[in-house]
From TrEMBL:
Gene Ontology BP term (one): peptidoglycan biosynthetic process
Protein name, as recorded: Penicillin-binding protein 2
Penicillin-binding protein dimerisation domain residues: 48-210
Chloroplast is among the record's keywords: no
Organism listed in the record: Aureibaculum algae
UniProt xrefs under InterPro entries: Beta-lactam/transpept (IPR050515), Beta-lactam/transpept-like (IPR012338), PBP_dimer (IPR005311), PBP_dimer_sf (IPR036138), PCN-bd_Tpept (IPR001460), Penicillin-binding_protein_2 (IPR017790)
Subcellular location: Cell membrane; Membrane
One annotated GO molecular function: serine-type D-Ala-D-Ala carboxypeptidase activity
Positions of transmembrane segments: 6-24
Length: 630
């Protein structure tokens, strides 16, 4: 019986394979062979459409085009020429000429490829008149990017010549341009448009005889679509100016939509540097700067411990789990003791000694003891620390932390939200618990967040319990984008009513607490300062905020590397941006000037010096050891 089945199957299988092979030969292969591109008597002539423009949320033009001219070669058509004269015209030497010719021939003797890319306008005008002398060469017009506002380089990305990997994609030919990074990459298809092509028939003497098959295969170019992104370019540029001579990331989001208003990474660069003939030279320079890292988008990729802003999340979890109410109080005696040894002490500088501290004051004075107590109660509510940690971790993750946000930005990082599995790995033989993991109470320890994650968390608080996936696209071809994942709210695991007392605490933080210097007359700002310990140097300055308190228009997270503490740099910057966005102007010119002119360069140079010294010492030690060994 079984044997019979096997025989059946074998016959069926062989038959199936034949059918597949037949289909391949008859349909796919013939289609491939029938393409005029594979007919050696046919030459394609491409017509490149203009790439779509990019506008900001208010219709301000941020990316336009400028014409560019490439000298193209079809090696088969090249006739003997005065190489010396031609090289002089192209501003290359003979060696270059030979190399380029060989490369083009290797790619295809018959298909056009770029010989010299991106001529200047002057060179083009001059060369155009002489081109008739050089058979097999012609000039191809393309368009290059142009940035009227020197801003948002990290958001926009750039375009550059296709790589071999891109070439495997049928839509691209050698020498064509493609979006890399940012909006240019993510919305390449819309922006690029469709190139047109004319197939020209040649006779066996390589003379043009007319359109191939009467133009049956020819297509017209379709212009690229314009795109509006969610960025407010005025706010973006303002934030970049505030971050001059500092390092870090700023992300601002509109809570009611998830639209990204500003996405700032500092230091940044002028996007015009990555256009034209100097492109690869400039790119290599920017890319190899391992100290400043201008190509590293800190707003999306830098993972920092969130520090004190994370306390508001513990407050929300404590309320949701019912282990605290807004009336619950704790005492702080300069810190929190979590074990018997003298080291098991978390210091606190809230300055409230011996008086009961409730939720509101716990937030606005940023008391470590208050949140250590709350965190301990959350974990210890459950029979085992494993269960407690699982519950806590899931609440934290519901705010979009510890995972990719699944947005339309070309890059991102997960960050880290510790869970029970992580601690089991850390302590395989030790019975860990709330005390072991107490740093989680104040946003230190294992937790890592990117600026965009923290801004998104702030938006979720502003919305009292949900967030829209942060995104960058607003309109394509002037039509508003309706993508499900951007319009369906993501709910957090915290009930709406618990947000009210926490938001009150954040409001008081700016009214009379740790961020009172960032208060703006007439705008109700809710915020939380933070300082994240940094073993490599000065602490990082952090601030999260949203405003106004009712009907929030903007939620923001600011990270300034080595900025000492939250209210020194991050707080003032966030409040200036909020005022600028809501009112269009700022009322505190002195504060603004202090931020524009303030520099942390000395701090960064010190760090570089330390790194160099460490390297030297290490090398010296290594040498000594080697000598000893000898
Ligand atoms: Zn305290």
């Amino acid at each position: 019986m079984e044997k019979k089945y096997i025989a059946y199957f074998s016959i069926l299988l062989v038959g199936l394979l034949f059918i597949i092979r037949l289909f391949y030969i008859q349909v796919l292969d013939s289609k491939y062979k029938g393409s005029p591109l594979n007919n050696s008597a046919v030459t394609p002539k491409y017509d490149y459409p203009e790439r779509g423009f990019i506008y900001d949320r208010n219709g301000v033009l941020i990316v336009a085009n400028q014409p560019s001219y490439d000298v193209m070669i079809v090696p088969r058509d090249v006739k003997p020429l005065d190489t010396l004269e031609f090289c002089k015209l192209l501003k290359i030497d003979k060696e270059d000429f030979v190399g380029k010719y060989k490369k083009a021939k290797k790619y295809s003797p018959r298909l056009p490829s770029v010989f010299v890319a991106q001529l200047s306008k002057g060179d083009y005008a001059y060369l155009q008149e002489k081109m008739y002398k050089y058979k097999g060469f012609y000039i191809q017009k393309r368009s290059l990017r142009q940035y009227p506002i020197k801003s948002a380089a990290n958001v926009l990305g750039y375009i550059s010549e296709v790589t071999t990997a891109d070439l495997n994609n049928k839509n691209y030919q050698q020498g064509e341009l493609i979006g890399k990074n940012g909006v240019e990459k993510e919305y390449e298809e819309a922006l690029r448009g469709v190139k047109g092509v004319k197939f020209i028939q040649k006779d066996r003497f390589n003379k043009v005889i007319g359109p191939y098959k009467g133009g049956e295969y020819d297509t017209l170019a379709i212009v690229g679509k314009d795109v509006n992104i969610t960025i407010d370019i005025k706010l973006q540029k303002y934030a970049e100016d505030l971050m001059a001579n500092k390092r870090g990331g700023i992300v601002a989001i509109e809570p009611s939509t998830g639209e990204i208003l500003a996405l700032v990474s500092a230091p940044t660069y002028d996007p015009n540097l990555l256009v034209g003939r100097e492109r690869s030279k400039n790119y290599n320079k920017l890319d190899s700067d391992s100290h400043e890292k201008p190509m590293f988008d800190r707003s999306l990729l830098a993972q920092y411990p969130p520090g004190s802003p994370f306390k508001v999340l513990n407050a929300l979890i404590g309320l949701q789990e019912g282990v605290i109410t807004p009336e619950t109080h704790f005492y702080c005696y300069g810190g929190f003791r979590y074990g018997r040894s003298s080291k098991a002490f978390m210091a606190c500088h809230c300055g409230v000694h011996g008086a009961p501290i409730k939720l509101d004051m716990g937030i606005y004075r940023s008391c470590n003891s208050y949140f250590a107590n709350t965190y301990k109660k959350i974990i210890e509510k459950y029979p085992t620390a494993t269960e407690g940690m699982k519950v806590w971790s899931n609440h934290v993750k519901s705010f979009g932390l510890g995972d990719f946000l699944h947005n339309d930005l070309s890059t991102g990082r997960r960050g880290v939200v510790p869970d029970e599995k992580l601690y089991d790995r850390y302590y395989p033989t030790f019975k860990w618990g709330a005390s072991t993991t107490i740093s989680n109470a104040i946003g230190q320890g294992e937790i890592l967040t990117t600026p965009i994650q923290l801004a998104n968390m702030t938006a979720a608080i502003a919305n009292k319990g949900y967030y829209f996936t942060p995104h960058i696209i607003k309109k394509i071809d002037n039509k508003p984008i309706q993508i499900d994942k951007f319009i369906i709210p993501n709910k957090t695991s915290i009930n709406k009513e618990h947000f009210t007392p926490v938001i009150e605490g954040m409001y008081n933080t700016v009214e009379k607490g740790t961020a009172r210097w960032s208060r703006v007359e007439g705008i109700e700002i809710c915020g939380k300062t933070g300082t994240a310990e940094n073993p490599q140097g000065q602490d990082h300055s952090i601030f999260i905020a949203f405003a106004p308190k009712d009907n929030p228009k903007i939620a923001i997270a600011v990270f300034v590397e080595n900025g000492y503490w939250g209210s020194r740099w991050a707080g003032p910057m966030a409040s200036l941006m909020i005022e600028k966005y809501i009112r269009g102007e700022v009322s505190r010119p002195r504060e603004e000037k202090r931020m524009f002119e303030g520099s942390l360069r000395e701090e960064y140079d010190k760090q570089l010096l330390t790194e160099q010294l460490e390297k030297e010492i290490k090398e010296k030690l290594k040498k000594e050891l080697e000598e000893k060994a000898e």
